[in-house]
Amino acid sequence: MTQRPTIAEIAAAAGVSIPTVSKVLNQRPDVAPTTRERVERAIMESGYVHNRSAREDVEDHKKQPKLIDLISPSALDSDYCLEILRGIEEVLNQTDYRLALFSMHNNTPRERLWLSEVSLKTTCGAFLFTSIEPIRHPEKLRKQHIPFVVIDDVLQIGADIPSVGATNWVGGLMATEYLLGLGHQRIGTITGIPSHLTSRARLAGYQAALASKGIAFDTDLVRPGDFHHESGYAQTCALLELPLPPTAIFAASDLQATGVYQALYEKGLNVPKDMSVIGFDDVPTAERMSPPLTTVRQPLKEMGRMAAQMLLRMIEGETLESKRVELATSLVIRESCAPLSH
After folding, report:
1. What is the DSSP string of 39-106?
2. Is domain 168-298 given the CATH code 3.40.50.2300 in the classification?
3. Do 7-62 and 65-166+300-327 share a fold?
4. In 10 A of CB 190, how many CB atoms?
5. DSSP 3-state of 167
6. Backbone phi, then psi, for 122, in 5-degree steps?
7. Per-residue pLDDT for 2 more than 50?
8. DSSP state for residue 227 in the 8-state scheme
9. What are the residue ranges of helices labelled H in the chain?
10. For the chain, which terminus, N or C, has the lower number of CB atoms within 10 Å?
11. What is the CATH number of domain 65-166+300-327?
12. d(Cα 145, Cα 126) in Å, to the nearest integer?
């Protein structure tokens, strides 16, 4: 520490946020006993004196907006992203924290800008949304003692990194088992981005369901997508060109399923009479599709709420009982699937 330590340095030494140090200095009761003891030890070891200038330091900090960053690799412009964001807002709206959005767009200068802001400790915490950067961002935040939570991680992350996701494998299994129960055996699937954990988990669930019925895995029926409408459309066209097309299609996202619908419509095929279709996510538009889409519900808003609750606890210096939280997926049956017609 410097000769005259600041509350920011005390926060770094204690491994807590600046607001938590402020609460201890001002004898606020809403600090966990173990956290309070850790902060008080750091204060004593630093030789910090709680005099007038120190109080002014605390008051200056209180006047600053309490920001939480949300870091996304792309624009938050899909129903999937917005549902998670709504969950975060529901929790933060009950506090005095404000959300700052950073959409990276693979833009190095913009990423450097955010990293420089982190170095200045202008944020109290961060959400790493569908993190495509498994190492640099978490390590940077850790070095600055800034708590963070990864939401819907798409790459392998350490078990010690706080994260919130959903049971993607179970979702893929449920979707495929439902179609098998309707008599379908040639079930095509349009995956998400192949390198993503969520995509691989849904595909693994699909494979497990087929294996449970003794149905051989046919690679011709598996088409790589990217969760977007365009890939759903293009890969459905490819599936329809097979010598023996599928009788049902499992799309890895509802947005991809809209592309499936478009391709089938242009080919003059009816959903579900000629092709059963099932999606994944259960975004609000799914039930407004024609016909309403049967889909696997991923609890997106609940994921946002859980991530926000975890982050606020960490900002207050609490220890999480579990670093990894997976919320359950469920099957929502509507009108886009029908028994196989012979």
Report:
1. HHHHHHHHT---SHHHHHHHHHHHHS-EEEEEEESS---SHHHHHHHHHHHHHHTTSSEEEEEEE-TT
2. yes
3. no
4. 29
5. coil
6. -85, -5
7. no
8. S
9. 7-14, 18-25, 33-46, 52-63, 79-92, 108-119, 136-143, 168-181, 197-212, 229-240, 254-266, 300-315
10. C
11. 3.40.50.2300
12. 11
Residue-wise pLDDT for 124-143, tens only, equals 899 988 655 544 677 778 87
Query: 122 in helix, strand or coil?
Result: coil
Q: Are the C-beta atoms of 81 and 101 separated by less than 8 Å?
A: no
Predicted pLDDT at 118 = 67
Whether pLDDT at 310 is above 70: yes
Domain boundaries, given as residue ranges, for the chain: 7-62, 65-166+300-327, 168-298
Determine whether 140 is exposed, middle or buried from the number of CB atoms within 10 Å of its CB (0-12, 13-18, 19+).
middle
The model's pTM: 0.78
Best CA proximity match to 199, nearest among 165, 173, 224: 224
Q: Which residue has the tokens 């889409």?
A: 293
For residues 259 and 149, give the distance between their C-alpha atoms in angstroms, rounded to a whole number: 32
Domain 7-62 is classified in which CATH homologous superfamily? Answer: lambda repressor-like DNA-binding domains (1.10.260.40)
Q: What value does the mean pLDDT take over residues 153-181?
A: 90
- How far is 34 from 11, CA to CA, in rounded Å? 14
Query: In terms of Cα–Cα distance, which of 143, 170, 138, 141 is closest to 153?
Result: 138
Q: How far apart are CA 11 and CA 131, in angstroms?
A: 26
Angle at 57 between CA 54 and CA 63, to 5 degrees: 145
CB 317 within 8 A of CB 16: yes
